[in-house]
Amino acid sequence: MKRNLFDGIPDDLPEELVSVLAENENVKIERIVSAGHASPEGFWDDQKQSEWVLLVSGSAVLSIEKDSGVEQIKLKPGDHLLIPARQRHRVESTSTTEKTIWMAVFY
After folding, report:
1. pLDDT in tens, 63-107
2. If we measure between CA atoms, which residue out of 105, 73, 78 comes closest to residue 89?
């Protein structure tokens, strides 16, 4: 079934919109739409699966915890990165002037 990544995005997003596009027992593909959202203060994601993320539109700043400290990564459309399993990370900010659309592949 054909679908469009940009369909079904409401104008008002009080919370991030997460849509599972495909999944099986080993892989999950999500579309995530942010509008000025960030991780809660003090929250660090520490997931069991690796995550590949692609920023489709908007902008974002991620923090990645490393042995040497915290690295901040600014993302623009087309940027992608691999977050290994158990790599603590958080979203510091997303664009407040346009929707930030992410593709995330968990495996």
Report:
1. 999 999 999 999 999 999 999 999 999 999 999 999 999 999 999
2. 73
3-state helix, strand, coil in the chain (%, to 5): 0, 50, 50
**In this structure, what is the dihedral angle of CA atoms 8, 10, 16, 22, given to the nearest 10 degrees?**
0
The closest alpha carbon to 94, from 30, 42, 31, 16, belongs to: 16
Q: What is the largest CA-CA distance in the chain?
A: 46
d(CA 73, CA 92): 10
Architecture of the domain defined by 17-106: Sandwich (2.60)
Over the stretch 32-73, which tens digit does the pLDDT of each residue have? 999 999 999 999 999 999 999 999 999 999 999 999 999 999
Radius of gyration in angstroms for the set of CA atoms belonging to the chain, rounded to a whole number: 14
